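Thread: "does anyone have the structure for this chain?"

Original post by V.I.:
We have the sequence but no experimental structure in hand. Need at least a predicted one for the grant figures.
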Amino acid sequence: MEPLLTELVKELIAKARIVSFSGWQATHPSAVIPLFQAADDQGRYLTDDDLQQIQTLSPETSVLIPVVQQLRDQVTEIIDDARSQVLTTFPDITQPGGGLYPPERAEACWRDFWHFLRCITYGIGGQSTEYTSPTGLYYLNLLYQELQVPLDAMVVGLEGIKIASLQRIESDQQADLAPYFDHLITQLKFFKKHESY
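Reply from O.Q.:
Generated one for you, tokens below.
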């Protein structure tokens, strides 16, 4: 059974939209942005149809479209690898007294990993490492503090997502793709510094 969420937590969840495409107005065709926005509004990965339209409207991004498809199609395996990394690094985290206990907390964490990779694929699909919203990240930070989310574990998980994703990508593309992951990892590490608000 899901634990009851407080009104504050519900409010923070609604505001913790970590993606923003507002900075893309000057660099992307106006018809492309709604495709990304619709996917984010629905909390889903870009579909093959979305990616085909993006490729047609913005041919210069087409080189990374196959990577977006590959990461989307392998999301379960990637998240499994990241979860294993967290559980190896913090073996007691899902035990009583651990930061991801009871099981609902752990499930919420793995679900966040799924969404983190979703957001990263938007950046890759739009060939822009500037895909996050400072306001949304601010509220995610507050949400994590309110829920006492173990930030060290989240950072390890996000680094695990990066490693697992890059392992599945052609080696000559890995250096170009790393910054999309590093952008979000850096944001989360910044949360850590402000843990004591």
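V.I.: this helps a lot. The CA atoms of residues 116 and 159 lie 11 Å apart.
O.Q.: and Residues 7-193 form a domain with the Globin-like fold (CATH 1.10.490.20).
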